[in-house]
Amino acid sequence: MRIDVVSIFPAYLSSLGLSLVGxxxxxxxxxxxxxxxxxxxxxxxxxxxxxxxxxxxxxxxxPDVWGAALDDVMxxxxxxxxxAHLLVPTPSGxxxxxxxAERLTDESHLxxxxxxxxxxxxxVAQHVGAQHPVTELSIGDxxxxxxxxxxxxxxxxxxxxxxxxxxxxxxxVEESHGAAGLLEYPVYTKPPxxxxxxxxxxxxxxxxxxxxxxxxDQALERxxxxxxxxxxxxxxxxxxxADRAL
Length: 246
Ligand code: ADE
Description:
This protein is an alpha/beta fold. The protein has helices spanning 19-26, 63-74, 98-104, 123-129, 148-159, 170-173, 208-226, 228-232, 236-244; strands at 2-7, 31-36, 49-50, 60-61, 85-95, 109-113, 134-138, 193-194, 197-198. It has 9 helices and 9 strands. A 5-stranded parallel beta sheet has the order 2-1-6-5-7. The protein has a two-stranded antiparallel sheet with strand order 3-4. The longest helix has 19 residues, at 208-226. The structure holds adenine. Specifically methylates guanosine-37 in various tRNAs.
């Protein structure tokens, strides 16, 4: 997969060189490039924003600068996939979920446009949308100063799902927001007693069936307490099938 990120703070994205994403880039599973939006300005001050039409506080990012950047970065070229998909992190976007992350793993080229200030002139998404899929997405109901932190979230959530990136694929199956739609059960490691706190006895029993049922119960209880919205959306038939397999 190829991922391009465009930002006025390319250094913000430097942590993508660490950990699993960094290794995926070094081993060739991922072709990751970060660009400075100001490279597409042509004035002495390298201006990327201007005052909003209609008035109001703050500044809006200029369509000509973003248009030039995205035309370049999204253009298919030698070795570049044809069908680039533009992602624009914004608090007014559709919710970024595990399901969306899974769908994005089917893409061969993602381009992430990190806006700052009051956002990017709306014509940029229209302009790119005439040629490419465009998804405006939000990582949660809060407002960040720009799209960079959201881009880090999206890249990590998508890249770890690419084949070969996470060492043990089974760990992708059992986690929160996985196929079962439940939050993950609590986990423990050695020592069996720490600060007077004991690991639940069932986990030391060696009885796989009892362990699986305990984890299922814990996941259900946790989801009911912390995320009743997820519980309401559960696929009960799928849960029943999973239960019969325990
Ligand atoms: N940019 C600013 N806030 C954001 C959010 N919550 N999600 C995605 N991008 C953002």
